[in-house]
Amino acid sequence: MNSHRGEHPVLITSAAPSYQDQLSARRRRYAVIMSLRIPCIVLAVVFAQIWWLALGLILLSVPLPWMAVLIANDRPPRKAEKPQRLAPSRRALKAATESRASR
Hints:
The protein is mainly alpha-helical. It has helices at 19-35, 37-46, 51-61, 64-73, 96-101.
């Protein structure tokens, strides 16, 4: 039935993802980055006897909120890909004058 079409669906628009999709992706990214801060602080407490390791983990956790905000507030770049459009059929329709002349 659709044997003339390729495997990939035809893209009919080159619009960016919706605002809600972008917002949910940015919230997820923020949550992941901020969740990395908790293990750093817990590990710093666990390794309190090794002062240089504890200090390194604390220093690693300090810029994470700042980085999370900057990364989460950054919108994704526009994609430079060309959309795959439906190719016109190879069969040409006869002009109306030609069909009348052939009758």
